[in-house]
Design brief:
This protein is an alpha+beta fold. The chain is about 25% helix and about 25% strand. Strand 9 and strand 10 form a beta hairpin.
C-alpha cells in the first residue's frame, strides 16, 4: 500500500469526560500535495452515509490546533466544518483536537467509563485533496482497562487470510484503511465486550456485544451466533458472493435504544436489554442484524452514483432510497423465513403489522416512494407532528411494495422468476462492478423479470397507490380481512374515533380530514375531560367513546399552553381496528402449491395465520 496521506492517533485518556482526543500527522509530501496558497484545509463531514441528515458534527470539536515542529500555526475557521491552517513551507504538520462524545446512537459517538463507540465521520477530519490516499490509524485505549477493539478495518501485521483477521487484544491497535472513505465507513468499539467469532458464508465474522442484558433470558449469544450464521449463509447464497474479507457486528444494548447503521465490512447496532430474553425482541434483533448485514450488498455497493461518490458537506439527493431501504426491509425478514429462523405464521404476523401501520398514515396519499426518497433529508430524518399527514416512510412502504412485487412476479411468471432475479441483476451489473445504477430502475426490474411493470412503477413508486397486498395474497390462498375489534366497542355499537394519535394524555398528531382536525384539536393538547368527566389517559378516552355513535357530539376539555379550552367534536366512524390474514378451508391444488413455493410450508387450510388489533394506536 502507498504511504498514508493521513496518519491518525486516537486516544481516550479519561473516558468519564466523554472526550476523544485525535492527533493527525500529515507528512511533508502530503502537505506539499495538498497545500495551496500557503494554506491547508481540514474538514469534518456534516453527515454520514446511510443516515440522510445534515448533523454538523463539527459542533462537537474543541481546541483544534496545528503545529509544524515547535512552531504553532495559525488556524482560521472558513465555514462551519472547515479549518484553514497556515503552512509556512515544506514539512510535516500535526493537527490536534478533541471531540465531545456523549450521544448513544449508531450515527454519533459515545464514550463513558464502560465503553467507547467512535463513529468515524463524527471524529476524524480530513484533507480533501488527500481523500483517496491510504490512512493509518493508531487506537490507544485508556490505560489499565483491558478494553478490546471491534472494527471492520484490517490491522497492521495481520495478513489477509489469517486464521484470526480480527487480531488479539492489544494495548495499542494499529489499523489501516485504503482511503478516508473506508475509514469513515468503519466504526470502532472499545470496551469489555463479549465476543464471539465464527465463520459464515465462507468468511470470518466477529460479534462484539456491549451493555446490559436482562437476566434469565431464553436466548444466549451462542444461539444468536447459530441464527446469524444461518441468516448470513442465506443472504450469501442468494447473491452468490460475499463482498468483504471479514465482517464485524457491533451490538450495543441499552434501555430505550434502537437503531442500526450499515458499513461495507461491519455494522453498528443498538437494541434494548430484552433482546436475548423475550422472543419478540429476539426476533426483532435478528431482523435488525439481517437488515444491516444485507446492506453490504444493497446500499453499500448497489446504489445510485450520488451515494457512491458524494460531498460530505452537502446533501446527496436520490429518488432511489426505496430501492436501498425498501428492498432491504423486505429481505431482512424474508431471510429469517428462508433460513428457517421464523415460521410462515410469524412472517405473516410481521407483514400484517407493517400493513396496518401503512394504512394508518394519511401522508401516503400525497407522497410517493420516489418523493419520499428525495425528501429524506427534510422529512424522514426530521420528523415532526405534520409528517403523519405529509409523507410516508420508504422503509415501510418500500418493504411492502417489494413483498407484493415479489408475489406478483412469481404469479405472472408461474414461479419461474422472483424479486431475487432483480436483486441478482442489480448486483452483477452494478454492485459487483462498482457502477452506480440509474435513477430510473424500471428497465432493470423489467429485464430481470421479463415483465412489463409500468403499472407498478406508475402507481406505487412514482404514484401514491398502496401496494395491492390483498389481491396478491388471494393468489396464494390467503385473505386479508379488516373489521372492528369487538373488544373495544359496546354491544352492537359502530366504532367511532376522534382521529388523533396520543401518548401520556397528550395529543401527538391530528390526522387530516378526521373529526379532531375539523374541531381544531392540535398536537400538544392535554386531554383532561370528556363530557365533563375526567380522563386519566388515552385508554379512558377510548372507553368513554365506546358506546357513542357516528354523528354524536362530545365536548373535550383540554389544556393548550396552560390555557383551559372546551371543544365540541362530532365523532365519525372509525377505520378498521382489527386485521387478519387467514387461509381458506379449501383451495385448488395449484393455489396450495403457490403458497408452499412462496413460504416453504404446506398450505394450512382454514386457519387464521395472523391477527392484530390497532385500537391502541389512535383515539
Amino acid at each position: 500500500m502507498p504511504a498514508p496521506g493521513h496518519r491518525f492517533v486516537l486516544s481516550i485518556p479519561t473516558p468519564h469526560t466523554h472526550l476523544v482526543h485525535v492527533e493527525l500527522t500529515l507528512d511533508a509530501d502530503a502537505v506539499a500535495a495538498a497545500a495551496t496558497g500557503g494554506g491547508l484545509d481540514v474538514v469534518l463531514p456534516a453527515w454520514s452515509p446511510g443516515s440522510y441528515l445534515i448533523r454538523d458534527y463539527a459542533r462537537m470539536v474543541r481546541d483544534l490546533t496545528a503545529t509544524a515542529g515547535d512552531a504553532t500555526l495559525a488556524v482560521t475557521k472558513r465555514d462551519k466544518h472547515t479549518w484553514r491552517i497556515a503552512v509556512p513551507g515544506p514539512g510535516p504538520v500535526t493537527v490536534r483536537y478533541a471531540v465531545y462524545a456523549h450521544e448513544l446512537t449508531v450515527r454519533t459517538s459515545h464514550v463513558d467509563a464502560t465503553h467507547a463507540f467512535v463513529h468515524a465521520p463524527a471524529t476524524f477530519v480530513h484533507v480533501p485533496a488527500l481523500r483517496d490516499r491510504p490512512v493509518a490509524l493508531e487506537v490507544r485505549p485508556p490505560d489499565g482497562r483491558g478494553w478490546r477493539l471491534a472494527c471492520g478495518l484490517p490491522r497492521d501485521g495481520v495478513p489477509a487470510g489469517a486464521p484470526d483477521p480480527f487480531g488479539p487484544v492489544a494495548p495499542t491497535y494499529r489499523l489501516r484503511a485504503a482511503s478516508i472513505d473506508e475509514l469513515y465507513d468503519s466504526p470502532l468499539h472499545l470496551g469489555h465486550d463479549e465476543v464471539r467469532r465464527f465463520t459464515a458464508g465462507g468468511k470470518p465474522f466477529e460479534l462484539a456485544v456491549w451493555g446490559d442484558r436482562l437476566a434469565g433470558g431464553a436466548f444466549s449469544l451462542d444461539t444468536l451466533v447459530t441464527d446469524l450464521t444461518a441468516i448470513v449463509d442465506d443472504h450469501v447464497a442468494r447473491l452468490g458472493v460475499a463482498p468483504y474479507d471479514h465482517y464485524t457486528f457491533v451490538l450495543m444494548l441499552s434501555h430505550d435504544a434502537y437503531g442500526g447503521l450499515e458499513h461495507r465490512a461491519s455494522s453498528a447496532n443498538l437494541h434494548n436489554p430484552r433482546a436475548l430474553a423475550v422472543r419478540k425482541d429476539y426476533e426483532g434483533l435478528l431482523e435488525l442484524l439481517s437488515h444491516e448485514f444485507f446492506h453490504a450488498w444493497n446500499g453499500k455497493r448497489i446504489a445510485p452514483p450520488q451515494l457512491l461518490d458524494f460531498d460530505y458537506g452537502r446533501e446527496a439527493h436520490t429518488r432511489c432510497l426505496w430501492v436501498m431501504e425498501g428492498l432491504t426491509s423486505h429481505y431482512d425478514r424474508w431471510a429469517l423465513r428462508t433460513s428457517g429462523r421464523i415460521g410462515a405464521k410469524t412472517f405473516l404476523d410481521k407483514l400484517l403489522d407493517d400493513w396496518t401501520r401503512l394504512v394508518a398514515i394519511p401522508g401516503r396519499r400525497r407522497h410517493s416512494l420516489e418523493a419520499s426518497s428525495f425528501d429524506a433529508w427534510i422529512k424522514l430524518y426530521k420528523p415532526d407532528e405534520s409528517n403523519l399527514n405529509t409523507t410516508v416512510s420508504y422503509y415501510l412502504k418500500g418493504g411492502l411494495v417489494a413483498t407484493t412485487l415479489d408475489l406478483e412476479i412469481r404469479r405472472r411468471t408461474e414461479g419461474a422468476r422472483s424479486l431475487d432475479d432483480v436483486l441478482r441483476l442489480l448486483w452483477t451489473e452494478h454492485g459487483a462492478r462498482g457502477v452506480g445504477h440509474p435513477e430510473d430502475v424500471q428497465p432493470l426490474f423489467e429485464r430481470a423479470t421479463g415483465l412489463s411493470l409500468d403499472d407498478v412503477f406508475d402507481r406505487q413508486i412514482r404514484g401514491t397507490d398502496d401496494p395491492p397486498l390483498a389481491a396478491e395474497l388471494r393468489h396464494v390462498g390467503l385473505e386479508l380481512r379488516a373489521a372492528a375489534d369487538p373488544a373495544t366497542t359496546a354491544d352492537g355499537a359502530t366504532p367511532v374515533w376522534l382521529g388523533a394519535t396520543a401518548g401520556g394524555g397528550r395529543v401527538t398528531g391530528v390526522l387530516d380530514d378526521a373529526p379532531a382536525a375539523a374541531a381544531g384539536l392540535s398536537p400538544g393538547d392535554e386531554l383532561i375531560a370528556v363530557d365533563g368527566l375526567r380522563v386519566g389517559g388515552d385508554g379512558d378516552v377510548r372507553a368513554m367513546l365506546a358506546a357513542r355513535r357516528p354523528g354524536d357530539t362530545v365536548r373535550l376539555a383540554l389544556f393548550r399552553r396552560h390555557r383551559l379550552l372546551d371543544l365540541a367534536v362530532t365523532l365519525a366512524e372509525a377505520p378498521p381496528t382489527k386485521w387478519e390474514i387467514a387461509a381458506a378451508a379449501d383451495v385448488p391444488a395449484e393455489v396450495a402449491a403457490r403458497y408452499q413455493a412462496w413460504l416453504g410450508e404446506p398450505y394450512p387450510g382454514a386457519t387464521v395465520l395472523a391477527t392484530i388489533s390497532t385500537t391502541s394506536r389512535s383515539v
